[in-house]
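Q: Here's a chain of 303 amino acids. Please give me its 3D structure as tokens.
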Amino acid sequence: MIVFPCPEFERMAAALCEAVPGLATGVFRAGRFNNGELFMRVETLVHGEDCAILGSVSPPDSQLLSTLLLAHTLRKEGARRVTGAFPYLAWSRQDKDKPGHSLAAAWTGALAQASGFDRIVTIDVHSPEDERLCPIPLVSVSSASLFGAAVNRFQLGGATIIAPDAGAIPRCEAIRAAAGLAPAAIPWFEKHRTETGIEHIRFTGEVGVQAVLPDDILDTGATLVSACQRLFCAGVEDIGRGARRRLCKRRPSRPRRAFPEAGNAQLSGRGRDPARHLQCRQAGELLPTAWWRFRNPGRAGRV
């Protein structure tokens, strides 16, 4: 298989090729004509080859457009199959069919299919509904092994693992299992998303003085900030906040919008040294776990 990494993902692609025999990186060039129109030029022969695009479809919207055009170009040049390897699958939060509202999870899947993608591999897809809405196979790789190892490393086995919303309960259960902890009821927040932000209105369960709060991504930070504020008010003294792209461990304050290297999983440390507040693990190491799915044309699933 030939992997075509977007510029921000070149280090991840190199690590992936080193870990998986038979992988090679391909070369492409994106540019724009004088009128601003985007074009792609694939400089690696791909006829009859299985190809993968390692990148992102997150905003800005030009990133989605570039990825789709690259997939279409690979198929035009004779690629046998094209896999989208997107550590974070943007637009997947729009997975509820509400009257008058966009259903972007279905929209992006349809665009991917029309552009020549055969399947998509991601990490911790937002919900099972995304798999149903996607018209091509969607494989979701769990990050529980990374965060389970962090729970043990930071000696958080006695902390309460809390779901910031109902949808995060299965993720928390998977982290407990990966950490070797006995099954237990997961306390959780009822979360409402309003025009002004996130509101946690009800908490179900019990929590001690130490808590771990996993989430799938830290973007604006609204979900984790709101949940942490409620927990501190309830007497929790120590919170390890986890997200597949960032995890902090400090008293909550509205974080500046930050996008660490795409696909990173960051795990909290202890102490007052700022350099120890964030510990980083490459989420790319999860992808070889599901490598057989890259070459398997079967339906959606979870790894």
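Q: Can you summarize the key feature?
A: Helices lie at 10-19, 61-76, 104-114, 128-133, 144-153, 169-178, 222-233, 291-294.
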